[in-house]
Amino acid sequence: MSLRSFVYTVLVTFAIAGVAAISIGLYRDGSGAVSGWTDAVVPGPLSQKHAFLSNKCETCHTPTKGVQASACIACHTTSAADLSMQSTAFHATSKECRGCHIEHTGAVRATKMDHATLLRIGSFPQGQNTSARAISEQMVTDLKGFLRLPTSNQPEKAGLDCANCHSNREPHRGLFGRDCASCHTLDSWRIAQFLHPSPTSKECAQCHQAPPSHYMMHFIMMDRMITGQEHATVSQCFLCHRTDSFNDIKDIGWFKHH
Fold first, then answer.
1. pLDDT of 177
2. How far apart, in Å, are the Cα atoms of 77 and each of 61, 80, 103, 121, 255?
3. Which of 86, 129, 171, 250 has the most CB atoms less than 10 A away?
4. Which of 200, 186, 252, 196 is nearest to 225 (CA)?
5. CA distances (Å), origin 170, targets 115, 174, 201
6. Phi and psi at residue 219, in whole multiples of 5°?
7. pLDDT in tens, 179-218
């Protein structure tokens, strides 16, 4: 063996031994065992709420297993408000956190909506250990996102009950049914290809429901008088409103008195 090969072998051996010694120390005594080591491995800053844990990696990370839901639940088990609201009540039975709550991105909140994760949470068989499957699926998802590979959200569209989670903010008042995914995508509620019917259309009530005030004396005493349409009915939206906004009143302009 040449001197160069011998020196190289010795250096590699010492490097491996050093890494092993540091790993053993960290595993046994926690992140405080080796001063300053986190600066070399941290992927990014924590969110504001978790910033106090910056030098306490083992609070969230379990050796050889990564971030487990049990670590999150240990701190957030008292978040009663999240369990009382319809749109977030699913947290009570969730077995996966890191799919939607991603750290080390420096964001104000460690929250990123992932509908695929929601579908996995809802499909977990009760009483079975699904953590290994959840981690492997999330690793594939993370890798696709990192490589910016194209993905399809058709499985999520078919499997999720959109109306069940979004009914508290559903602006259509049930007029379009419950199949939200027939019009909306999962990354944005805006419909780029949407074209509003002609301003001359007289079928506004098919999509728009009048506010409660239109079914009271307010409509007769105020609304009809202000617009000059004294004989208008509630279903004749086109007599008073323009299609760019319901607060844009014909011959009056922007008007909102409620």
1. 83
2. 18, 8, 19, 18, 47
3. 250
4. 252
5. 18, 8, 24
6. -65, -40
7. 888 888 887 788 877 888 887 788 888 788 888 889 888 8
SS3 78: coil
At 239, the amino acid letter reads L
Helix (H, G, I), strand (E, B) or coil at 199: coil
Q: Mind listing the pLDDT tens digit for each residue in 143-180?
A: 776 677 766 677 777 788 888 878 777 778 777 888 88
Q: Which helix (H) or strand (E) holds 62?
A: strand 61-62
Domain boundaries, the chain: 43-151, 152-184, 204-254
For the segment 216-249, what is each residue's pLDDT rounded down to a tens digit?
Answer: 888 988 889 888 898 999 989 888 888 877 888 8
**Helix H or strand E segment including 254:** strand 253-254
3-state secondary structure of 72: helix
Work out whether strand 61-62 and strand 248-249 pair parallel, antiparallel, or are unpaired: unpaired
Where are the alpha helices (H) located in the chain, listed in sequence order? 3-29, 38-41, 69-76, 80-84, 115-123, 131-147, 154-159, 162-166, 217-218, 224-227
- Which positions ≥6 away from 153 have C-beta within 8 Å? 115, 116, 185, 186, 187
- The residues that bridge with 62 in the sheet, in sequence order, are 66
Cα distances (angstroms) measured from residue 73 to each of 70, 107, 109, 185: 5, 21, 17, 31
- pTM comes to 0.53
